[in-house]
Amino acid sequence: MSKKIHPLTLPAIALSLMTVISAVAGLNVALPSIARDLGATQTQLTWIVDAYTVIFAGLLLLSGALSDRFGRRNGLVFGLVIYLSVAAYGLVVNSIGNLIILRAVMGVGAAFIMPSTLSVITASFPREDRSRAVGVWVGVAGGGAFIGLFGSAFLMRYYSWHSLFAMNMVLALLGLIGALTVVPNSADTTGKKLDVSGGLISIALVGGLVYGIIEGAELGWSSTQALLGFLLTGITLPTFIIVELRKEAPLLDPRLFANRGFSMGALSILLQFFGQFGFIFVGLQFLQFVYGFTPWQAVLRLMVVPLIVLPMSRVAGVLSKKIPQKYLGSFGLTFLAFGMYVFSTMSFTFSYVHFWSGLALFAFGMALASTPATTAITNSLPAEKQGVASAVNDVSREVGSALGIAIVGAILNTSYRSGMAESVKQLPTALAEKVSHSIAFTSMKTPAGMETQFADLRQKAFESFKHGTSLSMQMIMWVAIATAITIFIFAPKNIHEVS
Description:
single chain; mainly alpha; Growth Hormone, Chain: A; 17 helices; 76% helix; Sugar_transporter_CS
């Protein structure tokens, strides 16, 4: 740990992290445009976002272990090369199916990038600098999503949504240069056998759960697709636990969750990002479809978040040295819940005071809750296992993000379709399909002779979408409250307590 760290190492790591985070969130701002250009349904929009996140989350444990074994910088470089190569195809992709596949392959690259960024910090930085560096990492991970949205919206002022992939390419290229020049390499030298089977089971576990939720909202919770997804989850979860308990060197030892700092940190991260990405997924569509803002105007109204999260995460890094997650984390989650309540009460008339007060509460809560949770996870494992510790942190984030998008999207989709059910009964079949599957129809040209009926359809669509948005925000609020109470009760009283 005495080796001097290059002053540009942390900025290079932050840039590589930004590459991943911006792509997780950035495409959300383009969803209304993609829906109009490619005719995507609400379920297809969910898959365009979640194909990336599901592959990303499913591979994280295995990719973190591979980076531990073969070198954390090597894992970072490998991921950036994949990412850069695949993003180039995004400049010309022109079908929903190809876009979903492209996003899935980008998720492979992201799965190698993200755990490597945090494990380089926790394995290479001196202990006295580690909390500060983790605070910067958390700030970029939390605020970076909104900065990515800002960049995406700026590009869409002048170009099509394809230009977002050009931004991904530039960030990946800059991150790759930094990784090759100033990021130190480190690896697990214990020589323990790599747990490939655990990694493969984890992919099926995450994929099955998210698939069941997304398809259940579209086809019904008793549909074959939804039941198959949940059946796969029900089989792979106990299988994963049994397999990992029997391994000499498991990918993720389930016994680690008996460590209350580790388990409460993972729970907190999972549900923070459940709320964050659920809000981004629905909120950006609400701002554009209901309030009629352009992508640029919508994202500008979200930029309060990084202005709070980035500096407050550094403050939280200092506070987490003195205040345990039990208090600091539960306090932050309570603020996040208040923010979601404010969002659930939005009216049809946009109010800066109302919207920004919700954002401020949300951002303040995220900043205070994230750093102590991340620190609790990474402090729970030794230096040679920091790739796995980082991967658990990232799996919690990405599973939370995927579930947030899937469940919030399911609530919105179910509520919207239910609200429009009566209104579409007398419509021609093709038009009824468009109206019931996505609010994007409100931007289409009014069919001849249907001026009054179509105006009523639009109004009903806005009401149904608003109701679904309110329900989803309330659900996030109650989840955040329940998590805050759980952490306050079960998290360790002492910062370094390990059981």
